Structures are given as structure tokens and as C-alpha cells.
């Protein structure tokens, strides 16, 4: 009996050892330890053993079974390790290969100008304010001295929205940042000294116009802010923005409904491709008394200047870009060139 059990153990060991993978090991396990396996039939024979030998018989078979189970678990561990090693070596990563690297992103040229403008005006005491791109008719036109039916409204090709706000005012995509003058000044007391950069929208598209573009509005209202303050502030802004002390600047009479007098600001470089040409850069003027009144302020006491400049225009002149559409095509060859 012991001899044949030793044999069975040896056979089981051989069968386990020769299993090449988990499934053949499972087969060998079923043969020896399964429901109809070798040990199951040995246990069945217990009924043929005399009652005084039964206990001993059972104990011997049990200990043999334990040995086989132990051998099985050893073989299973070995097989699993082998399979793991195989997988690791086939999936090996070559750590000596050079990495793909990460491309360094950069700030969009328009955002670069936006930040420059903010830094410059902030350094001379202007607050930076932000407002919605969907505006109402009052802030965008009426309060700025362009009532319904006024011909000045048609100077701007507007995207109207088929909705009104809670005060029954027509909604539209703001055509300029000037409505921020109204929003801010209606809820703040002078001195008001702000710039407000942001997106603006007009039905317009060619090499120098895009339906979405950026402006920066400026407004300084107090008891004695005059046109000469506008000249001083805007001149030093331009010299700072273009890092050019030789810049020539002129204020050319113009018309805007919300300023009186109004001026177009032109500038001229002393060097570069645009050397010697007057270039239009911004609208500006003394805020019209009607507009001051629409802010809720008394024009007898308060006065000041405003300006509205295109961020695309400032950027194109700073970097010598001739087509505004380059800004929105996301061509990395273009964007990579502007890094400072
Ligand atoms: N809002 C004007 C436009 O988009 C620009 C402008 C002109 C703004 C004169 C001003 C200003 O604040 O005073 O064409």
C-alpha cells in the first residue's frame, strides 16, 4: 500500500513537472485530485477496509494527498513565474531609446499683446475690468449716444440675437468693448480709470477683418481729465508697447458718437518695413456729455477721455504681420515665430 502510494506520488510529481502550461497542469491535477481522480477512488475503497484499519488507511491516504497537493502548488508557482518572465521579456521596453520629448507650448500672439497692454496700463494706475460678450442694445449703442435709428449704428455690422434681456432690451454680440464704459461707470464712482480688453464681433471678414476680433477699451473719468491727458497717456503707452522712443504719434480729427471731440490716433515708425508711413492705431476722444449723463454722472462735474484700440492691429504692427487671418489658423509654423 505504502509502496503504491509512493508510486502515485512519483507519478503525480512527474506529471506536474512535465506540464508546459497552466492548462496541462490543470489536466494533471484533475487526474490525481479531481472528483473522479486517483485519490477519490482510493477514498472510495475505504469501505472495503476492515473497521480496525480504516482510521489508519484514511490517515495514510490523506497525507499522500497533501504531498501531491504541495507538489502541485510548487509546480503552479514555478509555471506562473515562467509565464510572467516570458511576458516581461517579450514586452520589454528599450530604456536606451531617446524619448519623444514634449513640445513647449507658447502664448498666442494676441494674448501676448493683451498681457502687454494690461501690464503697461496697470503700471500707470488703470484697473482691468471684464464684461460679457453678449450685450444689450443700451450698453452697446443707445447709452453711447447712438439711439435706435441713428445712422452711426450702421457703421458697425452687427450680429443681433433673436432674444431680449429681462428689461426687454435687444441682445447682440458686442460690436466693440465700449459698452464696458457704460457697465462699469453705472455702478462705480469716479475717479474711474480702467481698461477693458476682450472679444468683439462684427459681420466682417477679409485680410484685415475677422468676424471675431479683440479690442481694448480705455476710460479715465474724473473732475479734470482732459484731452491732453489722453495725449500723454496714449503716447507713452505706444512708446512702451512698441519699445520705441522714436515713434511719431498724431491725433487726427474724426467722428465717434460717444466722444466730442473725437480723434483717430496714427503712429509712424522710424525704422522697418513700415518706416515713414502713418498707420491708424486707435479711436479716441473726450467722452460726450450725453454719455457721461448715461453713466448716471453729472457732465458739469465729470469729464474724461476714452479710447478703443484693436489688439490684432497692435499685434500685427508689433510683429510685422500682414494678414490678420494668420492669428486664427492655428498654424504652428506661424505661431512658433512669436515668442516674446
Ligand atoms: N468703439 C470704437 C470702435 O469700435 C472705437 C472707439 C473710438 C472707442 C473712440 C472709444 C473711443 O472709446 O473714444 O470703432
Question: What does this entry look like structurally?
Answer:
By secondary structure, the protein is an alpha+beta fold. It has two domains: 2-90; 109-335, BirA Bifunctional Protein, domain 2. Helices cover 41% and strands 21% of the residues. It has eleven helices and ten strands. The protein has helices at 2-18, 22-33, 38-44, 51-90, 109-123, 137-140, 179-187, 227-241, 289-294, 311-319, 332-335; strands at residues 127-128, 134-136, 160-164, 170-173, 192-201, 212-222, 248-256, 259-268, 279-287, 303-310. The protein has a seven-stranded mixed beta sheet with strand order 1-5-6-10-9-8-7, sandwiched between helices. Strands 2-4-3 form a three-stranded antiparallel beta sheet. A hairpin with a 2-residue loop joins strand 7 (248-256) and strand 8 (259-268). Helix 1 packs antiparallel against helix 2, helix 2 (22-33) packs antiparallel against helix 4 (51-90) and helix 5 packs across helix 10. The longest helix is centred in the first third of the chain and has 40 residues, at 51-90. The mean pLDDT is 93. Bound molecules: 3,4-dihydroxyphenylalanine. 3,4-dihydroxyphenylalanine binds at residues 176, 178, 217, 256, 259, 283-285, 306-308.
